[in-house]
Write a structure and sequence with these properties.
Elements lengths: L2 E6 L1 H5 L18 H4 L2 H6 L1 H16 L5 H8 L5 E6 L5 H5 L4 E3 L2 E8 L6 E3 L16 E5 L9 H9 L3 E5 L20 E4 L13 E3 L3 H13 L2
Parallel strand pairs: 1-2, 1-7, 2-3, 7-8, 8-9
Antiparallel strand pairs: 4-5, 4-6
Helix pairs in contact: 5-8
Length: 226
């Protein structure tokens, strides 16, 4: 069975009604990114950061996977599929995808501030005073700006082994995630985005100028000859 890798970004979840963190003005829900998504911001105002992610977590509980998530999950009927996502939501999993690598962490998990290996499921509010077994404050299990991306090496290996690669709903501007497709040995690469930023892309990458729900339907039909 051919190995198919799907690289996804915020555009996949947008059609579920999930707001993208960073809007056109560069702010995340009205906050400068460094205030709510950096170790410096957390050290300066932990209550603000915790509340920011509490609201994101609450919002995620209110939305459902959209047809794009479902179309991607259906690919498992035809291929050995791995999803490498920049998204911190669980919509791929809820749609039925069984192999998802989260580059930037997961919103429904928290971890210790002193022991990065202590990670637990968490779907309610996280507050100051919520501690790990070592009596240290818990924090969102999110890769913040200025932090290493621990899953990146694994993602590179996955991409290198792929027979087919699909890129969906990402601006291709957030690094190192944006560089992942460059590790591919295959030329069977598709890019789905209504306003694709494909400047500098190799000519062999097929661009589908559609939003995620429509683009994944078209590509599902093409790849499975339905």
């Amino acid at each position: 069975m051919k190995k198919l890798v799907v690289l996804t970004g915020a555009g996949v979840s947008r059609e579920s009604g999930l707001k993208t963190f960073r809007e056109a003005d560069g702010l995340w829900e009205g906050h400068d990114v460094m205030e709510v998504a950096s170790p410096i911001g957390f050290a300066k105002n932990p209550e603000l950061v915790l509340e920011f992610y509490n609201q994101r977590r609450k919002q995620l509980l209110e939305v459902l996977p959209n047809q794009a998530h479902k179309n991607i999950a259906e690919l498992e009927n035809y291929f050995d599929v791995t999803i490498v996502t920049q998204n911190v939501d669980d919509l791929h999993e809820r749609a039925g995808s069984s192999n998802v690598v989260h580059l930037h962490g997961e919103l429904f998990k928290v971890r210790s501030t002193v022991n990065t290996n202590y990670v637990v499921e968490w779907k309610t509010a996280l507050n100051l005073g919520d501690l790990c077994p070592q009596k240290s404050q818990l924090r969102p299990h999110i890769v913040w700006f200025g932090e290493d991306v621990p899953m990146f090496s694994k993602a590179v290996e996955i991409v290198q082994e792929a027979n087919i690669i699909i890129i969906i709903g990402t601006s291709m501007q957030v690094y190192p995630a944006a560089s992942l497709f460059q590790y591919a040995s295959t030329k069977n690469i598709y890019y789905i985005d209504p306003n694709p930023n494909n400047v500098g892309f190799p000519d062999f990458i097929e661009v589908i100028h559609e939003k995620a729900t429509i683009g994944t339907k078209l590509l599902l039909e093409k790849l499975t000859l339905r």
